[in-house]
User: What shape does this take?
Amino acid sequence: MPITNISSDPNALTLTVVADYPVSVERLWDAYADPRKLERFWGPEQWPATFTRHDMSVGGQSHYYMTGPDGTTSRGWFKFLAVEPYRKFEVEDGFADESGNVNATMPTMRMIFNFESTAGGSRFTSVTYFPSVEAMEQLVNMGMMEGMKSAMGQIDAVLTDLQLFAASMATEAQLLNDTQVRVSRIVRGSADQVWRAHFDASLMKRWCLGPDGWSMPVCEVTTTVGGRYRYEWESNDGSQRFGFEGELLEFAAPYRAVTTEQMIGMEGPAVRNELTLVPVQGGTLISLLITYPTKELRDMILGTGMTKGMETSYLRMERELLAA
Assistant: This one.
C-alpha cells in the first residue's frame, strides 16, 4: 500500500492523502496523464473506471464511469483548472448523471494533486476541498476514504508494468463499449509537432497514407470550427480510390480536436472522432476516441485492419518529425 497518511480537517473542509512510490516523478505523473493507466487504478477494485475523455490541459475535461460487479455504473468528471507538468495539477471534480451531464444534486469538489521527488523516488499529495461540512460528511459516509484506499492500492502494478505502456508499443485499439473505441499510440515528438502533423496538409500527405502503395492526392484541412475537411487516397496503380469528409466541431490547439467523419458517397449517421494529445515520457500520447453510430459499423471498420494501417502511418509520422 503506497498511502502513508490520510488526514481530514473539518475546520478547513479538507481531506489530504500522502503516498510514496519507489519510482520517478515522471513515471508517477504519466500514470495520471495516460487514460489507459489511470483507469487501472482510479476506481476501487470492484468498480473499475473507463475514461471516455481525458485531455489534461488547462480548460480540458475528463469524463469517466465506474462499473460495479452487478453492472451498475457511477459517472464522474474533472475540469482542469491548472496543469504544471510533473509538478501539480488542479481540478474541479464532480458527479455526472446517466447521460454524462453534471449531477447538480451531488457536491462538487476542488482537488489539488502535487508531485515531488524524494530520496526513495517520488511523493504524491492530494488535497480535496469540500464546499461545506454537509458535503464532506455526505461523501465520507458514502465510503470516499475507503474507495481512495482501494483505488490507490492498485497503482503499484501500473507503475511497474512498463512494457504494457512503453513508447515502443504499436498502435492499439481498446473497445470501451458497444460503440466506442480508443486508439492509442505514443509518438516521438512534442505535442506541438504532432499537432502540426495533423493539420498541415503538406505534412499529412507524407505520413497519413495507411499501408504502403497509396498516395493522398486530396488533403483539404480546416482549423475553423464549423469548417469542412476532405481527404482522398488513391492506390499507386490508380485502380482504387476512396475518401472521407466531415466537419470540425472543436479545436483547442495543441491538445484536442473533435470532428465528424463520413465516407464520401455514403449515406447515414457520421462517426465522431475526438483527438487528444498529452505529453508523456518518450513523446506525445495520441488518443483517438471514435464513436460509431452502431456496434455493427464499429466491428466492420475494425475488421478492415484499420489499426495496422494507422500504425504504419504513425511510424511515417515519427520519421517525418525526427527528420525535421
In short: Residues 3-162 form a domain with the Alpha-D-Glucose-1,6-Bisphosphate; Chain A, domain 4 fold (CATH 3.30.530.20). The chain has two domains: 3-162, 172-323. The two ends are 45 Å apart (CA to CA). Residues 306-323 form the longest helix (18 residues).
